[in-house]
């Protein structure tokens, strides 16, 4: 019964998509991408019900373009690869199931690329590699990579502009005695290698007189948080402040800036009081008032 239900849903969705396509209904690239993801999810579910468990395979082939970049849209792994001097490539870890299709994007720059569709075999290859042969790069299939849905082989990290001066001061201090670019890069790499320690308590750095960002979550809208900044081992507050606004409709404290942290240089512990907190009090109907909870971070004023 469940197999029949899934099959019916998949058929109806496919028919709706085809009708919209043939009627010339205007679908944006993002909408087509969403529809494709829905269909793919249904196909995977249907394959599992038929006894075919999805598995990872590699795709090999040739573009005839040495150094070309190859990636698969909506790849589970996010891997991408480059063609060798003869234009051959092997793209690792895409998801196989009977009838799966892969949109491979082949490009030689960051602006334009060509999309080539490759179909998976009905049975899993014994070698674990799907031979796609020579890909036909039709100029009619050229796409703009800047806004192509499904690319996940890289991500953009926005620069922390608010702390730019702090980063600049660290860079200047580390590279002051270095003369060449190579020496500066080595010094920065050595510094960064000392910053990651999974067993170390996390630190938030702030210059004297600077501000920090506040965020917290409760279980009721309108929650607010009081912060207590103390020297390690002390129960005396060096600085106390509360969030100016309460939590939003999702019970999350909207990010806001603290008042200036005018404290002496050094390490401080952070404690919080959370009104309408995320721990239920069995003695009452509502949530508990969380008081004097130490956070797993330390604040370093420097």
Provide a descriptive summary of the structure in words.
- The protein is an alpha+beta fold.
- The protein has helices at 2-22, 29-49, 164-175, 181-193, and strands at residues 55-62, 69-72, 80-82, 88-96, 101-107, 112-119, 129-134, 142-144, 202-206, 213-214, 225-230, 237-242, 256-257, 266-274, 290-301.
- It folds into four domains: 1-51; 53-156, Immunoglobulin-like (Sandwich), CATH 2.60.40.10; 161-193, no CATH class; 202-301, Immunoglobulin-like (Sandwich).
- Helix content is 22%, strand content 30%.
- 14% of the residues are buried.
- Mean pLDDT is 77; it is low at 1-6 and 247-254.
Round the Cα radius of gyration to an integer and report it: 27 Å
Helix content: 10-25%
Mean pLDDT over the residues: 77
What is the CATH superfamily label of the largest domain? Immunoglobulins
Residue ranges: pLDDT <50 for 5 or more in a row? 1-6, 247-254
What is the correct CATH architecture of the largest domain?
Answer: Sandwich
């Amino acid at each position: 019964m469940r197999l029949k239900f899934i099959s019916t849903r998949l058929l109806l969705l496919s028919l709706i998509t085809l009708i919209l396509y043939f009627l010339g209904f205007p679908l944006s690239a993002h909408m087509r991408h969403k529809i494709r993801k829905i269909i793919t999810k249904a196909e995977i579910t249907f394959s599992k019900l038929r006894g075919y468990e999805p598995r990872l395979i590699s795709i090999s082939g040739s573009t005839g373009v040495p150094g070309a970049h190859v990636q698969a849209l909506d790849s589970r792994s996010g891997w991408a690869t480059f063609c060798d001097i003869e234009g051959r490539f092997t793209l690792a870890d895409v998801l196989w199931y009977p009838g799966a299709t892969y949109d491979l994007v082949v490009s030689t720059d960051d602006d334009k690329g060509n999309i080539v569709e490759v179909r998976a075999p009905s049975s899993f290859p014994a070698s674990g590699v799907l031979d796609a042969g020579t890909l036909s790069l039709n100029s009619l299939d050229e796409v703009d990579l800047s806004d192509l849905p499904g690319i996940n082989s890289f991500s953009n990290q926005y620069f922390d502009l608010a702390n730019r001066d702090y980063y600049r001061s660290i860079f200047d201090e580390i590279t002051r005695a270095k003369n060449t670019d190579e020496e500066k890069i080595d010094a920065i790499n050595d510094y960064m290698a000392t910053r990651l320690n999974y067993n170390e308590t996390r630190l938030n750095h702030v210059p004297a007189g600077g501000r920090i960002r506040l965020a917290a979550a409760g279980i009721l809208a309108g929650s607010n948080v009081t912060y207590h900044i103390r020297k390690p081992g002390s129960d005396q507050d060096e600085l106390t402040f509360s969030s100016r606004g309460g939590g939003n409709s999702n019970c999350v404290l909207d990010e806001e800036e603290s008042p200036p942290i005018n404290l002496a240089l050094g390490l401080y512990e952070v404690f919080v009081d959370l009104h309408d907190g995320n721990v239920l009090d069995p003695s009452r109907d509502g949530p508990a008032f969380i008081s004097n909870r130490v956070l797993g971070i330390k604040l370093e004023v420097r």
